[in-house]
Amino acid sequence: MSLFSEHNSKPTVTVASFGNSNTMDESPEMFSSGAVSSTEVNKLIRNTYILLSLTLMFTAVTAGMSMMLKLPHPGLILTLVGYFGLLFLTNMLRNSVWGIAAIFALTGFMGLTLGPIISAYLTMFSNGAQLVMMAFGSTAAIFLSLSAYALTTRKDFSFMGAFLMTGILVAFLAGLGAVIFQIPGLALAVSAMFVLLMSGLILYQTSDMVHGRETNYIMATVTLYVSIYNLFTSLLQIFGVLGGEE
Predict the structure, then answer these.
(1) 129 pLDDT above the threshold of 50
(2) DSSP tally for the chain: helices H, then strands E
(3) Which residues contact 155 (CB under 8 A, 6 or more apart)?
(4) Smallest Cα–Cα separation from 17: which of 205, 236, 150?
(5) CB 228 within 8 A of CB 143
(6) What is the pLDDT of residue 18?
(7) Chain centroid to CA 215: how far?
(8) Using alpha carbons only, how large is the chain's radius of gyration in Å?
(9) Which of 32, 63, 110, 168 sees the fewest Cβ atoms within 10 Å?
(10) Per-residue confidence at 135, pLDDT binned at 50, 70, 90?
(11) Are 113 and 79 in contact (CB under 8 A)?
């Protein structure tokens, strides 16, 4: 998985690619290499969505703190170092309870990078609050609709894996070029690509959980979180360009 974010006087382009009845199980690695029962699948899905909800709330908290404190965006290099470092740590600890602490560190850090992005839109556009709410509402609607579709139909979207990996790599490189060379048209195209790619990744990851190919709720949460984060920032970029009022 990879992510970069650059903040300056213009809106940010952010790019990413993949990776008990009321409480989460202590061990994230829930399945053996054998057949996966429906009970185990339901447990994995429940644990994933509980952890995903908590990490999204934590991101909202850290983003709000960043906005209140008027923290500057850390910049491309520090964002990449922080993201990759915390992602590596989460992956290393994915089979222990420390993996939960690592994923909160990762999502909290991403919240700190998100705060300045939202602040930029609120400052630059007279309808900035409306743009942020539109991006938030659209992200929620897309995620819930696609997740519900994959969960209820139980269709197998594993065939999308190679396409998503290739598409995200191409979009990442194009997005990197758009940030470095400040090409607004390319940045907008990359954002549109990522809306489609992240939507596909949500279907792909949910299908993996339903069919027992994903066995770790921490890593499933990371993939879904990255999809949501980039879906939100990509939609915000598109709405800012097409509907922003300075």
Answers:
(1) yes
(2) 7, 2
(3) 149, 207
(4) 205
(5) yes
(6) 42
(7) 19
(8) 18
(9) 32
(10) very high
(11) yes
Between CA 199 and CA 171 the distance in angstroms is 14
- Indicate the domain borders of the chain: 36-243
pTM for this structure? 0.87
184: CB partners within 8 A, 6+ apart = 10, 178, 241
List of residues 6+ apart from 209 with CB closer than 8 A: 41, 44, 45, 48, 220
The sign of the dihedral angle between the CA atoms of 71, 76, 78, 79 is positive
Distance between CA 199 and CA 191 in Å, rounded?
12
Using CA atoms, how far apart are residues 126 and 130, in angstroms rounded to an integer?
Answer: 9
How does DSSP assign 213-225, residue by residue? ---BHHHHHHHHH
Q: Name the region of 23 (left: φ>0; alpha: ψ -120 to 50; beta: rest).
A: beta
CA distances for 1 relative to 10, 15, 48, 64, 134, angstroms: 25, 10, 18, 25, 27
Q: Which residues contact 235 (CB under 8 A, 6 or more apart)?
A: 134, 135, 138, 139, 191, 195
Longest dimension (CA), the chain: 58
- Beta carbons of 244 and 125 less than 8 angstroms apart: yes
